[in-house]
Design brief:
By secondary structure, the chain is α/β, with parallel strands linked by helices. Helices cover 40% and strands 16% of the residues. It is built from 13 helices and 11 strands. Strands 1-2-3-4-5-6-8-10 form an 8-stranded parallel β-barrel, surrounded by 6 helices. Strands 9-11 form a two-stranded antiparallel sheet. The radius of gyration is 20 Å and the shape is globular. Bound molecules: (3S,4R)-3-hydroxy-2-oxopiperidin-4-yl beta-D-xylopyranoside. The site of (3S,4R)-3-hydroxy-2-oxopiperidin-4-yl beta-D-xylopyranoside has 7 residues, from loops. (3S,4R)-3-hydroxy-2-oxopiperidin-4-yl beta-D-xylopyranoside binds next to loops.
Length: 354
Amino acid sequence: MCFRSHVPAALLFFFASLTGAQTLREEASRAGILIGAAANVHYLSEASYTATLAREFNMLEPEDAMKWEALRPDEQTFDFGAADRIVAFARTHNMKVRGHNLLWGTHNPDWLTRGNYKPKELSELLHQHISRVVGHFRGTAFAWDVVNEAFDEKGRLRDSIWYNRPGIGAGEEKAYIEQAFRWAHDVDPDALLFYNEAEAEEMNPKSDAIYAMMKDFQRCGVPIDGIGFQMHIFNLSPDLPSISANFARFSELGMKIHITELDVALPVAPDGKVLDTVDLERQADIYRKIATICMRTDGCTAIQTWGVTDQYSWLGWATDKTKGAGLLFDRNYHPKPAYTALRQALGGRTRKPD
Ligand code: XIL
């Protein structure tokens, strides 16, 4: 399937102006799609941060506060403090909460990774973790990234403490992933359960492997509802027809699609300033086209950016400050061309929300 803009831009403007929506959030709720942001508890005391979140987004996901590293200071303790604050903010502002994440090979606490646990002990720890965490947020987290980034770029399972080092079921391939989904479903059968992945938005060996796994899970009755495409875009020429075709095949499989961590990284100076302002237009165009692909794919029900303002984006940390400015709001919370483009792309179409 090829990506083509069937609706001329001028007509999209017309639809957007017809809806009269002033914010992304208004536009998204009219369009029947969720628009989210990852949030960090450190900034909840900053007025511009909270005002922008509450005004523009109807979904929230803790950027770090639900990771093992944050929730589990030691083997005995669960510290829900930071995550609870984010959830409370979301509830106050009538935003849905996405949980992220229950199982990942990184961002685990040292006591876990250096603990020399045996497979059976690890399995018990994971079961207890999933039960406790999903139970704690039952009724508030409507969706979970159950497993994060299990595959490498060749479509092979990554080595990890949960898979094979030592793993909770050595030699059983995807059994550990299946097990995590079953445990999460046991505790909250109403939550939507997602497999979340980086660099799987295009047709490639990684997305092929995930597709095969999900098809297999479906056949075996594993409780899985969808795929999260992270969509950290570092290349200003993403293969849009390939993204569109990939979205279509997961949707046709009956999977929901959430874009979970969208940002479009631009080359920046060490102070975060965009090097070439033309890039802001290229970035806007990518946001518009990605949102349009989502709007045209039946199963695609949520678009979430990985942060709010460029000021606090993870991109600087991830690229040694060479790239950044990937979000919808600049360092002073001014909406960028990408904001306008995304809002327009959401306009003019009604969808069935999650
Ligand atoms: C990142 C956070 O943004 C950072 O604050 C943290 O230091 C590292 O993790 N894929 C994911 C996210 O699934 O959890 C990562 O978030 C970004 C890549």
